[in-house]
Amino acid sequence: MDQTPPSNAYGRYCVPAGLATRPAVRAVLAGLIYEPQTIAFMRAHAAGGDVIHAGTFFGDFLPGVAAALAPGARLWAFEPNPGSYACAVETLRLNALENVTLTNVGLSNVEETLHFRTHDAEGAPLGGLSHVTEAPGPGVTAVQAAMLDFAIPRDRQVSILQLDVEGHEKRALKGAYHLIHRCRPILILENHGNESWIQRTFRGLGYRVCGRLHGNFVYATEDLDL
Asked: What positions does the domain Methyltransferase FkbM occupy (predicted)?
């Protein structure tokens, strides 16, 4: 008999095996929403445009954000971990989401192959803590990296760019240099509070920290209510 997938107020989810103690998985298994303030903010500020969501994990953000997009708008989701990506694909199916483009790549400032750690030294899956590393080895797999400047069609207007890429934010942002200049989206960056780097890299756009949502820093070119 098939097991009923866990759910919360936004939808149903395929959760990865062996990761029940991870915060996002634990929340969904309990029928709760992980990072509810972040999802609510993204839903409220999509403003008719597309949303980019990188570090999709098993897709816990997908139903809530996708449901709030305007007609014709799209959620562009990126997840490099093959196991997490497979769960996110199933989450899309469980919720019949048709306005989401999910891609099994990491983000960087060049199109390259990355060494990506998916398991720890004991072989346990890292799930959402998977990250880019310097060298191959046990628990490390090769994944493709894409640049947002090429991954997102140039005729799309992006309202929000949200990154949860475990320390790879600077390279991912550099790969979105032209997109950010064209669209000036709200930036939601996990644990990346280097405002001076953002201002130097995207000089003249006026980005500044507007506040925090859970562990995320929110940058915008105009004042926002968080």
From this structure: 55-196
Strands (E), 79-226: 100-103, 106-107, 113-117, 131-133, 140-146, 158-163, 186-190, 208-213, 216-220
CA 160-13-71 angle, to 5 degrees, is 40
Question: Measuring CA to CA, which residue among 160, 154, 147, 157 is closest to residue 73?
Answer: 157
Closest CA to 152 of 179, 171, 174: 179
In residues, how long is the chain?
226
Range 79-98 average pLDDT: 95
d(CA 22, CA 13): 15
Chain mean position to CA 165: 7
Burial level of 122, CB count in 10 A (0-12/13-18/19+)?
exposed
Listed in order, strand segments (DSSP E) in the chain are 50-54, 75-78, 100-103, 106-107, 113-117, 131-133, 140-146, 158-163, 186-190, 208-213, 216-220
Q: Which among 202, 158, 154 has a CA at the least distance from the CA of 70? A: 158
Q: Which domains does the chain have, with CATH numbers?
A: 23-107+149-220 (3.40.50.150)
Computed on alpha carbons and rounded to an integer, the radius of gyration of the chain in Å comes to 17
> Hey, is 3 helix, strand or coil?
coil
- Residue 193 tokens, joined: 């509070």
Question: Is residue 42 within 8 Å of residue 51, measured between CB atoms?
Answer: yes
- Predicted TM-score (pTM) of the model is 0.91
